[in-house]
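User: Sequence in, structure out. Go.
Assistant: Echoing your sequence, followed by the structure tokens.
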Amino acid sequence: MSIEFGVWRVDGDSPQRLSLGGSDKESRLQQWLIRDLSIVAPELMLVGKEVHAFDNERIDLLAIDRAGRLYVLELKRDIARREAVAQLLDYGAWVAELSLVDLSTLFEKYCPNRTSGQTLDQAFKARFGHELPEELDAAHELWLVVAGMDERTRRLCDYLAEHYELPINAVFVHMMRDGEREYLARAWLRDPAQAPSPSPDQAGWNREFYASFGEYAHRSWEEARKFGFFAAGGGSWYTRTLKQLGPGDRIWVRVPQQGYVGVGRVVSKAVPVDDFKVAVDGIERPVVEVAPAIAKANRYADNPENAEYLVGVQWLKDVPVSQAIHEPGLFGNQNTVARPRVASWIDTIARLKQRFGIAD
């Protein structure tokens, strides 16, 4: 049984069903989405339309959200069949290989909303109010934008999403006519804003935290190794995930574009850099008095919004950035701290345990 969508106009006690159908043309719907992607989902920015992927295949619309996650939007005028899912998976395999450099090139070549000379970084900051992440989210979303879906295709989408955790969804977009007026209606196969979040155990989380350590003039990995801390700052976007960490949690630290540099146990929760203390020669001292790089970071007393926060860590194994572990297939993510629920994270931990010599 295919999914059905109906709308009625109520005049007194006599509901009248409106004439319903898909968009007259895919190109018409595409133009609407180019102007306003919130028709299918809030918080998206267009990267390109008719993006050349491989052979003669073109992705109808490619978008990005504020976290750096990519969205492949495949538009179909009528009922979606299984072939559309296969096509979407093909595009997903291609998108998974994109780097930020690739994405910037695609934006400059295929985005109709781009102003003259505008870069992807500039457009992203104008849209979301913060800098483009240094790396794309390892995950991406695959969405069919359709008038409807037959039962076999719906079952296939549900199977891929529920059993393989594939981020595939469908957005049903319908044109309705009421006399001379036209209306546009939208519904999701799975509402991305309201889908329940499974508990870590249900989702298969392995209780290992991923942590991204961005090196800057005011944040040195060598100081973090020496004085036992993990740090982040520059706004709530970068520091809010630090709240996930508590004493006893284990973090695996990666320096973006370099690789994994350490694993450690959290010994104290995040506090502003102003309040973080370390033991030097048996005497407890403020870290800003003994670590020259972190001393340059924003203090909470001077700049609460962008202050640097530090988490106390006992390193189990750490290496210099020059010896960072970087291998194809290792998990990466733009978030400061994350609880990954994907198979690649489990594989990454297994590999890092071997490389770092961690028994359990």
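User: And one key feature?
Assistant: The first strand starts at residue 8 and ends at 11.
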